[in-house]
Amino acid sequence: MEIHWRKAEKLTDDERGAAESLLESLAGDHNDLIDIWIEVDESPHHRQGNATVSIRCQARGEELVVRERATDPSLALRDTLDAFDRDVRKMRGRRRSRRTERPPAPPHLGVVDAVFAEEGYGFLVTDGGERVYFHRNAVSKGLAFETLDEGQRVALNYEAGEKGLQATFVAPPPPELTG
């Protein structure tokens, strides 16, 4: 990770060193932060403070940009570092949750038990004997709700709903699962 400073003359060497130490500890043993640019800007024309510090970071797969304003550059730097820390933790949390997501469960097989076309719903019975509610919006992948017939073979995934099992999708059964 490389840290680049722009227009940082208003900050002391100690402030820049402390900021770099904090950023290095935030990087820790991760290799997701590549380049960080820190820019200090002062403008006499802003009510919320005339010092602005921006941090722009090229991270693996995305760019993080944080900008905070305060009455002086030291306070703006502190606030920007805090906001950057939060953004990096959120980014890592999103990545962690993507890694732990399980792939969709293989479809279950079943048959159409009843269809109430006017109301837009019906019931299926899985090969395991579970009765599962389905809404017309769950029907996909080449099936049409209006053409479903009782006894028709289908593939489905389901989950617990408010009033029992509910199909999340209903589709034609894959040829390899119908045998």
Architecture blueprint of SSEs:
Layout (H helix, E strand, L loop, with lengths): L1 E5 L6 H15 L5 E10 L8 E9 L2 E9 L2 H28 L7 E9 L4 E6 L4 E5 L17 E9 L2 E8 L8
Parallel strand pairs: 1-2
Antiparallel strand pairs: 2-3, 3-4, 5-6, 5-8, 6-7, 8-9
Low-confidence stretches: none
Shape: elongated
Q: Strand order, biggest sheet?
A: 7-6-5-8-9
The CATH topology of the largest domain turns out to be Double Stranded RNA Binding Domain
Q: What does this entry look like structurally?
A:
- By secondary structure, this protein is of the alpha+beta class.
- The protein has 2 domains: 99 residues, Double Stranded RNA Binding Domain (2-Layer Sandwich); 70 residues, OB fold (Dihydrolipoamide Acetyltransferase, E2P), CATH 2.40.50.140.
- It is built from 2 helices and 9 strands.
- Strands 7-6-5-8-9 form a 5-stranded antiparallel beta sheet, with no helix packed on it. Strands 1-2-3-4 form a 4-stranded mixed beta sheet, with helices on one face.
- It is elongated.
In short:
This protein has 179 residues and is an alpha+beta fold. The protein contains 2 helices and 9 strands; from the N terminus they run βαβββαβββββ.
Relevant terms:
179 residues, alpha+beta, Double Stranded RNA Binding Domain, OB fold (Dihydrolipoamide Acetyltransferase, E2P), 2 domains, five-stranded antiparallel sheet, four-stranded mixed sheet, 9 strands, 24% helix, 39% strand
